[in-house]
Amino acid sequence: MVEPRNYSYKEFPAAAETCPGMDTIATRRDERKLTYLADVKYDSYDGGELCLQILKPYYADARKAEFPCVVFVQGSGWGVQNVYSNVASLAKLAEKGYVVAVVQYRHSSVAPFPAQIIDTRTAIRFLRKNAEEYNIDRNSFIISGDSSGGHTSLMVNITEGMPEFATSKYPGISDHVTACIDFYGPTAIYEMNEAPSGMDHCGAGSPEGMLIGGVDVLENLDLAKKTDPVLYLDKGRPIAPILMFHGDKDPVVPFLQSVRLYEALRANGKEVFFYKMLGAEHGGPGFWTDQVIDLIDSFIRKCF
């Protein structure tokens, strides 16, 4: 009988036994596999909890490794999010060597703008505070999102340090990001009805109207303009580099919204890269191809 004891990987003896007809496959111990941590609570509010969906490389714990963290804001028209809908696609990015955390925020029926921005900052601080537990490099945070989540990501990046968008949670912990990836996020919600679209963007019950408190967008331009990331750009204030993707057949967020942002970023001397996705609609598999994932990976690594 062999007495049980705690072995390290190197100490544990490899099985020497063999048998006729058996084949072998060599493993390298660097194969890609992920660990999925579901519904990790990072904050709460009256009536509910706010959670993260976290993906991280499988060997992270055993190797005590640290990885850059991509904080992804799931699009939902600022309404109730399906935070699980892009987990499978985001796994392709996590496999490149990232921790990916999908953020749930207070939806617009519960809390209007800028609650989404504040919640996302809180999530970043939570992750940075607990970086060791989740194998995160504290100095390497990327903010990303699609559609309304893209808008939230842009706002988190561009308004860093502004008190009206600050969170009071986890004081003393930074919510700084070093890169920003925007998938077809709206910018000027008060101009969205001026381009072809499959929906109304200005009524009180529209996603944009709900964002600012359930009121008509065009009748409340003072509120609507507070949501516009372009209006917070300043040549003298640095922001993280931005990578943008937008489909030229998007029936929800007009392509011109991203053109407007790109031109404003360039005019203000900011680093930005913009890809027009030919034939792509509002999201879909074209935004998660190996080519796009490689572009994102390359962009992030250059930022660090």
Summed up, the helix count is 8
What percent of residues are in strands? Answer: 15-25%
Question: What's the domain count?
Answer: 1
Q: How much is the radius of gyration in Å?
A: 22 Å
DSSP strand tally: 8
Q: Could you give the distance between the termini?
A: 53 Å
CATH superfamily: Alpha/Beta hydrolase fold, catalytic domain
Helix content: 10-25%
CATH topology: Rossmann fold
Shape: elongated
SSE-based structural type: alpha/beta
- The SSE order reads EEHEHEHEHEHHEHEH
Q: Tell me the CATH architecture.
A: 3-Layer(aba) Sandwich
Mean pLDDT: 95
Strand order, largest beta sheet = 1-2-4-3-5-6-7-8
- Main sheet: strands, sense, barrel: 8 strands, mixed
Stretches where pLDDT is under 50 for at least 5 consecutive residues are: none
Task: Write a structural description.
With 304 residues, the protein is of the alpha/beta class. The chain has one domain: Rossmann fold. The protein has 8 helices and 8 strands, in the order E-E-H-E-H-E-H-E-H-E-H-H-E-H-E-H. It has an 8-stranded mixed beta sheet with strand order 1-2-4-3-5-6-7-8, with helices on both faces. It is elongated and about 80 Å long.
Question: Can I get a quick summary?
Answer:
This protein is an alpha/beta fold and 304 residues long.
Draw up the topology in text.
Blueprint: E1 34-45, E2 48-57, H1 60-63, E3 67-73, H2 87-94, E4 99-103, H3 115-129, E5 136-146, H4 148-158, E6 179-183, H5 207-211, H6 221-225, E7 242-247, H7 255-267, E8 272-277, H8 290-303
Helix pairs in contact: 3-4
